[in-house]
Backbone:
């Protein structure tokens, strides 16, 4: 076994141990397992939410995106910063409703606000469809990291299997508290490693950051001016817009855990004010990506460019530490996504009302989803490739329903919202199957969203023409049942 | 919607307009860095004081309510 592989496997074990230390005993209550006691302090929520933006995509994918598209990759900064502005207003409102009504998931919110279990169930199925490939992407990332740093495909398979098993164990044991415990370690390790590499890589290969950009301006100016084919201004704007809406309006189901677990609306508001400062960190992998453009040949696998540079520059033990940072950037988001998927199934898809049945359905789903993602990553890594491109384009179709659900009175009938969502998903899937993820540079999700909004708008007009009054604010109804089991009635 | 909320609209508009601003796409460098990189980082840093300003007003209202 190589030194790099040994360090990486040891690192994964430490991450899982850290996750298990999040709880002394396994939780027997789904609400506690999913959102803690809804009493996480500002610092804890900050680490959870900061960790949500530092995934395998930030670590490896962003470097690859710069390698192929240049400054177009900067769309990530506006999307995160503007997304936080939206979350600053939306997050505290959802937190208050969640605390009052006992929400654990996005589906709980929709089914309660619209008084329709069908809407909660269908939105959950759509969310699962577009979130599952994202979980697989994290597990594929576990394999890619070790395959690249060791040059051995078998090491990649070992890494995927070991990483998935460890994620399942600490997620089942500790739930969201395990994610919190690992998020502290993850944020610290990834920040130190990526900041060090953003200085060391340009210095080693090009004599410094200044030299990298001087050479690029002279040799590859198209990379600094949005003139790469398929990555121009329209692509930049539409990618940023679809991501802002998906992120800022809580379209991603796993964002709900961190919001609902906060101890107060004030803590959330303060976090969203300070998180844009952390967003600046994504500039670090971009500097590495621009260095890769100057150093690596054009046929290099884009997502592997960071690790290729590192492998040729650093001794084995340090390569192992970089690998651990990349692995942790896959394992912790994978844990969050597993929680997001399992709670949607247990609370909104499977018609189980008993808390005990919900709890065991949830835990069985964690195992089944992670196992299915691992098998697909090992056997058919390309099967879901197109759906990965559609994660945001698909999840953004749920955001009109979420935005309408924030209203004090329900302005549109749930069937119109459901029809709009289904039409948006169908159009997005059809267009992307025929034309790809973007048509004339515009993200396919925006076409779907336009149809979605048109159907919802038509539904609202019909409702008004029929003279049906808007429904009263559901939060005025009495909450019933135990914590985390209050919603979901017709 | 209160007038102080406009404090967040300015950086949001500046950030979303990034790809269409011609002075960011000249091919030159600002402070040795791509102009687009400098622009998005600067506006991103300004989001924090804008949101803190809005939060202070909201908390003052909640406290007085």
Residues:
């Amino acid at each position: 076994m190589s030194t790099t592989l040994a360090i990486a496997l040891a690192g994964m074990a430490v991450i899982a141990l850290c996750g298990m230390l999040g709880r002394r005993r396994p939780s027997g209550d789904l609400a506690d397992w999913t959102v803690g006691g809804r009493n996480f302090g500002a610092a804890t929520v900050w680490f959870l939410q900061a960790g949500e933006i530092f995934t395998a995509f930030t670590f490896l994918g962003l470097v690859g995106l710069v390698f192929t598209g240049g400054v177009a990759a900067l769309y990530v900064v506006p999307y995160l910063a503007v997304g936080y502005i939206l979350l600053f207003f939306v997050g505290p409102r959802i937190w208050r409703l969640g605390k009052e009504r006992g929400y654990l998931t996005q589906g709980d919110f929709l089914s309660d606000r619209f008084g329709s279990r069908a809407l909660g169930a269908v939105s959950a199925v759509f969310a699962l469809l577009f979130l599952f490939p994202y979980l697989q992407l994290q597990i594929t990332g576990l394999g890619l990291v070790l395959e690249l740093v060791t040059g051995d495909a078998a090491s990649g398979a070992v890494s995927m299997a070991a990483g998935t098993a460890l994620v399942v164990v600490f997620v089942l044991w500790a739930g969201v508290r395990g994610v919190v415990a690992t998020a502290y370690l993850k944020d610290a390790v990834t920040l130190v490693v990526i900041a060090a590499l953003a200085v060391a890589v340009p210095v080693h290969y090009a004599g410094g950051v200044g030299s990298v950009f001087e050479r690029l301006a002279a040799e590859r100016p198209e990379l600094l001016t949005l003139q790469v084919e398929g990555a121009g201004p329209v692509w930049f704007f539409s990618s940023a817009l679809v991501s802002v809406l998906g992120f800022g309006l809580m379209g991603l189901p796993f964002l709900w855990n961190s919001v609902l677990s906060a101890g107060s609306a004030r803590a959330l508001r303060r976090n969203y004010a300070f998180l844009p400062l952390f967003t600046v960190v994504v500039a670090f992998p971009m500097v590495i990506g621009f260095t890769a453009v100057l150093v690596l040949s054009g046929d290099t696998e884009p997502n592997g460019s960071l690790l290729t540079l590192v492998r040729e520059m650093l001794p084995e033990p340090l390569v192992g530490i970089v690998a651990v940072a990349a692995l942790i950037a896959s394992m912790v988001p994978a844990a969050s996504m597993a929680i997001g998927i399992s709670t949607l199934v247990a609370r909104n898809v499977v018609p189980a009302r008993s808390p005990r049945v919900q709890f065991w359905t949830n835990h069985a789903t964690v195992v089944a989803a992670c196992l299915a993602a691992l098998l697909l990553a090992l056997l058919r890594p390309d099967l879901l490739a197109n759906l990965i491109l559609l994660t945001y384009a698909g999840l953004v179709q749920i955001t009109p329903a979420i935005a309408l659900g924030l209203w004090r009175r329900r302005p549109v009938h749930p069937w119109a919202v459901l029809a709009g969502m289904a039409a948006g998903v169908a159009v997005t899937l059809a267009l992307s199957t025929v034309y790809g993820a973007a048509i004339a540079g515009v993200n396919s999700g925006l076409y779907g969203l336009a149809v979605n909004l048109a159907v919802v708008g038509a539904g609202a007009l019909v409702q008004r023409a029929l003279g049906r009054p808007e429904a009263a604010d559901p939060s005025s109804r009495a909450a019933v049942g135990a914590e985390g089991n209050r919603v979901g009635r017709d | 919607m209160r007038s102080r909320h406009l404090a967040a609209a300015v950086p949001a508009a500046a950030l979303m307009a990034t790809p269409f601003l011609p002075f960011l796409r000249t091919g030159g460098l600002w402070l040795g860095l791509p102009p687009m990189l400098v622009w998005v980082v600067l506006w991103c840093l300004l989001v924090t004081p804008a949101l803190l300003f809005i939060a202070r007003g909201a908390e003052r209202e909640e406290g007085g309510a």
